Amino acid sequence: MENFDRRNIPKHIGIIMDGNRKWAKENNKNISEGYLQGQQVFDEVCLYCLEMRIPYLTTFAFSLENLKRSNDEIRALLDLLFERLRDKQWFIENNIRVYFAGVISLFTKDEQRILQDLSTSTSKCDGLSVTIALNYDGHEEIVNALNQAIKQRGLIKVVTKDTIERYLYTSHLPPLDLIIRTANIQRLTRFLLWKSSYAECVFFEKYWPDFKKEDFLKAINDYEKRERRYGK
Amino acid sequence: MENNQVVTGVPEHIGIIMDGNRRWARQNCLPVNQGHSEGVKVLKKIIRKCSTIGIKYLTVFTLSTDNRNRDKKEMQNLMTLINLNLMAIAEFKKENIQVKIVGDRENLSDSLLHTIDKVEKETADCTGLILSFAFNYGGQDEITSAFNSILSDNSIDEVSVELFEKHLFSGYLPEPELVIRTGGEKRTSGFLLWKAAYSELFFCNKFWPDFSENDLIEMIDEYNHRERNRGQ
Questions:
Q1: Which domains does chain B have, with CATH numbers?
Q2: Which of A27, A43, A66, A94 is catalytic?
Q3: Domains and CATH numbers, chain A
Q4: Which of A50, A111, B90, B198 could join A107 via S-S bond, C-beta 3.0 to 4.6 A?
Q5: Is B109 touching A (CB cutoff 8 A)?
Q6: Does the beta-carbon distance from A200 to B157 stay under 8 Å?
Q7: pTM
Q8: Contacts of A190 in chain B (CB under 8 A)
Q9: B154·A150 Cβ contact <8 A
């Protein structure tokens, strides 16, 4: 870790965690095991961020598009996810503040309460801010922001980038510096659209459950190299 | 056979971030101007190739990573103008290419607006490739401008994704299936921020003057390969 120049370390990392299902299939496990393994890796990545004092981490947990998949599978995935999010203690102990970004109103009242509870319970934590994109779509986020702005039309004279920022689900976040995507998928899929304009992209062939600390360090290193090149 | 090369699975729209003219010139111990004129030569070849294989839309963005700390947009505009000036309107008409400018028309000088107007009008009846130059373009600026235009229209109470798109500078374009960036940088720098949010990204280490028709065809093949995999 000492090898990194702190000035060039990313402040905000976004991760699109792909390949849980493929990993399960190729390892003859059921899909739930793939997702569980994926969660495990996610926890580890949170700890790497804490260790390196990277203040913001955002993950794409569930897109609006995911809703199109077969119901049983979505249910299984969401059940696992909510079970995980019920465990407030892990986040509090590690000093992690949790935010959510997306169309949260599509969840049931009970589910919304779990999310609310986790956000509130961790609101004093200041080691790492983790934002979990749920029912998220970058186009929807912009259009939703605009519809909020329309309701307050009388108060807005001229819209600047700052005005738009205020209405985003991700208004609490700085721009994304680095986007990591696994499973050899090389597109951004509307992840944090507005915030991702200048993000460095690092793609990995391996599936998310196989993502290791050395991979994480490689991504940081790629980013750092670029910063060093242009910082001059 | 060569001239009638059949390329299957031809995308409808390709976006290209042309980066690396200056670095190419430096690497070859040539003046910067020669980097630009070499870049224009390559652009002409790529335009012709796109036309030949039946691509309907090509959108190009002239970016320079060398100018990170200077006024990015000014540099970008300058280089786009160089491209346009070196390519005569007569040539576009001869090749049946419709030229469009995608970007902010506010605050441009009268002579610039006149130039833009002229090239768009004179090629408006061409029915071949639709070639768009991103000019005075920024991805967040484009969205901000759409916000302003919608908010100033009091008859609009609610906006959908479809309606929003109509207010973008790039509203007339379909989403590009591929976005290519040359010059080794692995980010999209806000290029077609809204429209390219789902595009397959191709980052190429070659400087733009070294990019060839073959590179383009290989990327289209790779795109089709990715598409097939996605279907599985």
A1: 13-225 (3.40.1180.10)
A2: A66
A3: 6-139+176-230 (3.40.1180.10)
A4: A111
A5: no
A6: no
A7: 0.93
A8: 197-198
A9: no
**Pairs across A and B, CB distance < 8 A:** 90
Residues 123-152 of A with CB under 8 A from B: 138-140, 142-143, 146-147, 149-150
H-helix or E-strand containing A16? strand A12-16
Q: Where are the alpha helices (DSSP H) in chain B?
A: 21-27, 32-53, 72-86, 89-94, 110-122, 139-151, 161-166, 213-231
Dump the DSSP string for A21-84: HHHHHHTT--HHHHHHHHHHHHHHHHHHHHHHT--EEEEEEEEGGGGGS-HHHHHHHHHHHHHH
Residue B100: which region, alpha, beta or left (left: phi > 0; alpha: psi -120 to 50)? Answer: beta
Token reading at B29: 């111990």
Which two structure tokens, joined as six digits, stand for B167? Answer: 């207010």
**Residue A66 annotated among the catalytic residues of the structure:** yes
pLDDT (tens place) for every residue of chain A, 232 residues total: 546 777 789 999 999 999 999 999 999 999 899 999 999 999 999 999 999 999 999 999 888 888 767 788 788 889 999 999 999 999 999 999 999 999 999 999 999 999 999 999 999 999 999 999 999 999 999 999 999 999 999 888 889 999 999 999 999 999 999 999 999 999 999 999 999 999 999 999 999 999 999 999 999 999 998 877 665 4
Interface of B with A in 130-169 (CB under 8 A): 139-141, 143-144, 147-148, 150-151, 154, 156-161, 164
Chain A interface test: which of B19, B65, B147 (most A C-beta within 10 Å): B147
ipTM value, please give it.
0.93
